[in-house]
Amino acid sequence: xxxxxxxxxxxxxxxxxxxxxxxxxxxxxxxxxxxxxxxxxxxxxxxxxxxxxxxxxxxxxxxxxxxxxxxxxxxxxxxxxxxxxxxxxxxxxxxxxxxxxxxxxxxxxxxxxxxxxxxxxxxxxxxxxxxxxxxxxxxxxxxxxxxxxxxxxxxxxxxxxxxxxxxxxxxxxxxxxxxxxxxxxxxxxxxxxxxxxxxxxxxxxxxxxxxxxxxxxxxxxxxxxxxxxxxxxxxxxxxxxxxxxxxxxxxxxxxxxxxxxxxxxxxxxxxxxxxxxxxxxxxxxxxxxxxxxxxxxxxxxxxxxxxxxxxxxxxxxxxxxxxxxxxxxxxxxxxxxxxxxxxxxxxxxxxxxxxxxxxxxxxxxxxxxxxxxxxxxxxxxxxxxxxxxxxxxxxxxxxxxxxxxxxxxxxxxxxxxxxxxxxxxxxxxxxxxx
Length: 434
Ligand code: NAP
Known about the structure:
6-stranded mixed sheet, single chain, FAD/NAD(P)-binding domain, 15 helices, Rossmann fold
């Protein structure tokens, strides 16, 4: 019997466990370990609450536990409850699928001011991540700025714009729904340091901005390249830019405005004891598509500034780290000595949820080549881990516990919502009667 521990129960963790289960059949026992008592990582805490069809992929992950026999072990923080070295002594292979849940810093003066939040924190707040439940983002001002031109910036701008009714069918947590409902924000400026042809936003997500009940998107027509230049874009980018062109033509007035501000590089955040404005430098595109500052600066009023410029993977003691990439140092997912990484912890924060499937399968293949099914090292695997956790008094959860929590969340749902997420450790454990 081979034993594998997959650390992290987001998409990368589940696809890798699925791939290992297929590669080894009955000849391996696989544990998916998560620091939180509940599974699904990015699906539960990252994917926007109004994108339920994307979140539905978790049902496929359930089969990995219920049909392929993989074990889920929640509430076990690797690095605190158990070390990597201990896991390596218990399992034949340890696969880090810990994602990239930390915000990259802007690196500009004033980013420590109250009112400046990273997207991991803001998204975690509206998605009920326990670390951000108390974020209390300032929503009493009239203006917000969202930095970045990727899909996370679109998620944040859309969530700031929606009415309570538009959250019907979503699983946005009650504390965020109530706060957003009372929000005074009327102008949301999406700040991009490059131009419409350099956006990382995708067409479907951009298109959603054109159908909001109370908000209208606007692009300055002068920021758009000549229409002939769109011919050089790939079809997906051409569709995205078509939306931006549509946003440049006048639309019905609505109470909220989503203003795209291209060619604007953040240089400072200013305010008296809290964020009041984002100072940007006008940029131009240089050879190769990079942006260069023009020296011209101006201020965008904003009492809430959400930075959506990417993420990095948290370090784990003893695991080599790629500082520049913000991920584990690895070669094709191999860190070395029975240690592997997959997903964003391997590649950095890019790609769709589906990108993690081939990624996980590729690393599982490399593992199966290095540790052929049928051979054994006699390591104790999950039984050994359970004994160690019991000895340390760690209150681990299993998949049946998650089903109990899920039932409690479904029972507590608003009339138009699939669930009301339990948000804090104490609530999860109390749903389990612990
Ligand atoms: P992203 O797609 O990499 O976009 C990051 C944006 O931040 C880019 O526009 C980048 O501009 C900008 N940026 C980086 N550093 C900056 C700085 N110092 N100052 C100003 N701007 C800066 O990242 P993301 O939006 O966090 O998304 C992460 C991944 O999740 C992506 O693959 C995304 O597609 C995916 N995602 C998908 C969905 C969905 O499908 N619905 C939703 C959310 C996220 P430059 O291009 O100039 O570097």
